[in-house]
């Protein structure tokens, strides 16, 4: 069953953020485990290409590797994502990337009737660039504010409760689906061809396979890939509509029979 990592961007109220995290954990369907991934030990600087990876960053990347997918929730900070969340994604995508091919579901979190669209679009752009496999539209949001929770910390807002349940269920289904797909791809036998053995990645990319294979028919032209393209021969017989008019000005021109270009 899927294990989903939770990355929660900084909400305006720390207490509300913890209450929302508790809701998300409680909403996980049976058989799905939600694990909150901490970014507290990440270095304050960005990844260096010429320095060893710090211990905190290694632990963070290992935590990402241990989950089947990610659920990332972001508020809107100045029409973008929080700096700390972007910093975490920078470390996650640092070589070797922990996000390449990773199933990811994103959602916005904001007070009711507040903006979130720009932040979600920015987050989607950053994750796509990192190679994550993002769940598509529609964009999902959580209308969350301190008044959504009672004195005991339990949610008293029916709309938020429904949004959280739908979000976690969608994330669980998406991650489980891609996890099964990865298993099926890994178990797919390697294909032997005249051009060589195809890798697992190539079996998922038909165009790459076509680029490698030399396709020939019985007596047909050779593929241009091998450097000996054959000329195209048009065997269809079609009357030129201009010639069909009988206009002497048109008939005065001769045409090359293969291309139709003026002779």
What structural category characterises the helix and strand content?
alpha/beta
Helices and strands, in N-to-C order? EHEHEHEHEEHEEHHHH
Strand portion, in percent?
5-15%
Identify low-pLDDT runs: 202-237, 255-260
**Into which percent range does the helicity of residues fall?**
25-40%
Provide the gyration radius in Å.
Answer: 28 Å
Mean pLDDT: 79
Helix tally equals: 9
Q: Give the N-to-C terminal Cα separation.
A: 70 Å
Largest sheet: 6 strands, parallel
Morphology: globular
Q: Tell me the number of strands.
A: 8
Describe the structure concisely.
This protein has helices at 14-26, 55-65, 83-93, 117-129, 158-187, 200-203, 206-212, 241-244, 248-251, and strands at residues 3-8, 33-36, 69-74, 103-110, 133-134, 140-143, 192-193, 196-197. It has 263 residues and is α/β, with parallel strands linked by helices.
Q: Overview of this structure, please?
A:
Strands 1, 2, 3, 4, 5 and 6 form a six-stranded parallel β-sheet that branches. A two-stranded antiparallel sheet has the order 7-8. Strand 1, helix 1 and strand 2 form a beta-alpha-beta unit. It has 263 residues and is α/β, with parallel strands linked by helices. The longest helix is centred in the middle third of the chain and has 30 residues. The chain starts with a strand and ends in a 12-residue tail after the last helix. The protein has nine helices and eight strands.
């Amino acid at each position: 069953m899927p294990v989903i990592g939770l990355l929660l961007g900084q909400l305006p109220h720390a207490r509300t953020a913890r209450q929302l995290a508790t809701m998300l954990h409680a909403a996980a369907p049976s058989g799905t485990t939600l694990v909150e991934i901490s970014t507290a030990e990440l270095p304050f600087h960005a990844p260096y290409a010429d320095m060893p990876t710090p211990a905190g960053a290694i632990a963070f990347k290992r935590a990402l590797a241990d989950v089947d997918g990610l659920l990332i929730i972001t508020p809107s900070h100045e029409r973008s994502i929080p700096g700390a969340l972007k910093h975490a994604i920078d470390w996650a995508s640092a070589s070797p990337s922990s996000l390449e091919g990773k199933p990811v579901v994103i959602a916005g979190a904001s007070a009711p009737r507040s903006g979130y669209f720009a932040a979600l679009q920015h987050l989607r752009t950053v994750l796509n660039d990192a190679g994550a496999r993002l769940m598509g539209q529609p964009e999902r949001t959580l209308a969350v504010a301190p008044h959504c929770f009672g004195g005991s910390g339990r949610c008293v807002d029916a709309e938020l409760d429904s949004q959280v349940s739908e979000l976690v269920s969608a994330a669980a289904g998406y991650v489980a689906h891609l996890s099964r797909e990865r298993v099926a791809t890994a178990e797919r036998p390697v294909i032997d061809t005249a051009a060589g053995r195809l890798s697992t990645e190539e079996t998922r990319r038909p165009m790459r396979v076509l680029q490698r294979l030399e396709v020939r028919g019985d007596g047909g032209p050779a593929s241009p890939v091998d450097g000996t393209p054959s000329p195209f021969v048009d065997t269809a017989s079609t009357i030129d509509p201009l010639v069909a008019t009988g206009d002497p000005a048109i008939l005065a021109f001769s045409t090359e029979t293969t291309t139709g270009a003026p002779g």
